[in-house]
Amino acid sequence: MEPVPYDKRNGKIWFNGQVIDWKDAKLHVLTHGLHYGSCVFEGERVYNGEIFKLREHTDRLIYSARRMGFEIPYTVDQIDEACNEIIKIQNVQNGYVRPVAWRGSEMMAISAQKNKIHFAIATWEWGSYFDPKIKEHGIKLNVSKWRRPAPNTIPWDTKAAGLYMICTLSKHEAEKDGFNDSLMLDHEDFVAEATGANIFFLNEETKEIHTPIPDCFLDGITRRTIIDIAKEKGFKIIERKIKLEELKNFEACFLTGTAAEVTPVSQIGDYSFKVTNSIGSFFDKYLEIVNRKVIA
Ligand code: PMP
Question: What is the arithmetic mean of pLDDT over 67-76?
C-alpha cells in the first residue's frame, strides 16, 4: 500500500500561533520561501515523548533565520513551548518534529523587505531514516558529483532550505545507481558529509576517529554528542581535512544525524568498511542518553 502523502494526513499542525487541522496547513503558490528559498527549518527527534536537545535545535533555527536576514516572530521559549504543545496534541512518543519558517507573499521578487515571516511546526511518529535491515550491515554511499559550496557563497552553517537542492540531486543520483546515500566532497575536494548527516572514520586498533572540520557544512548536534561519547570511551577525535584517497586507511565509517542517529557505512564508492563493535557501542550509548533524559 502506498504511504499517505504528507499533505493528506490527519491530525493538527501548529501554524502561525494556532493549532489548526493538518489538511488546512497550506500556503499560497506565490510564496517567497518557495520561489527564492527564503526558508529555514529544523529536524528534531522525539524519544519517549520528549524532544531530544530541543533548546539546541531552537537556537539553531533562530540562528538560521538570522543568517537568512529574518527574525522568527517568536522567542526561544515560545518556540520550545509550541514544539512541546504539538507533540502532546499529536501524541507523538517516538517521532520527528519539523519546525519551519519562511517569507510570505507581500513582495514577489528578489527583495522581500516587507514579507511576513510565517512559522509552522509539524510532528509525526517516525522510525528509522535508513531501512533498519540495511542499517545493520552498513549503508552504501556513492561519491556525489556535487560539492558542498564554499563558505562565502551561501549561509552554509544553517538549515536553510536552499542548501538541500544539491542534497536531493545527490541522493537521487545515488538511489538511481543502487546506493543508499551520497558522500559529498567540499569545494576544495575534501570529504565533507552525507546529504543529511555528518561523517566519521575510525580504526579500532589505534582508537582514533577522524572527521572533517565543519567549516563549510553543518556541525550537527548529533555529531557533537557522538564526539563526547567517543571521547568518553577512550577514542581520540581528530578533526582535519580528509582526502577521498585516504579512505583506504580507515577500517570503519559511520554517519550521525538527528534522523540517521548512528548509521554504519559499509561502502563509499570503491572503498569498503567493516561494521565494527565500537560503532554499535556509540549507538547504544546514544540511545541510552536520549532515553535517560526522560527517566532522569
Ligand atoms: N548535515 C546535514 C546537511 C543535515 O541535514 C543534518 C541533519 N540536520 C546533519 C548534517 C546532522 O545534523 P544534526 O545532528 O544536528 O541533525
Answer: 98
Whether 263 lines ligand 1, by a CB cut-off of 6 Å, is: no
Task: Band the pLDDT of 209: cuts 50, 70, 90.
Answer: very high
Structure confidence at residue 295 (pLDDT): 45
Helix/strand/coil for 109 = coil
> Are residues 137 and 120 located together in one domain of the fold?
no
CA-167 nearest atom, ligand 1: 3
Residue type, 53: K
Residue nearest to atom 7 of ligand 1 (CA): 196
Average pLDDT of the residues in 248-276: 97
Pick the last residue of a domain from 125, 158, 184: 125
Which amino acid, 192?
Answer: A
Bridge partners of 11, per DSSP, are none
Task: Report yes or no on 250 lying in a domain.
Answer: yes
Q: Nearest C-alpha to atom 10 of ligand 1 is from which residue?
A: 197
Instruction: State the pTM of this model.
Output: 0.96
Question: Ligand 1 in contact with 220 (CB < 6 A)?
Answer: yes
Grid coordinates 540495511 are at which residue? 134
Query: Are 194 and 81 within one domain?
Result: no
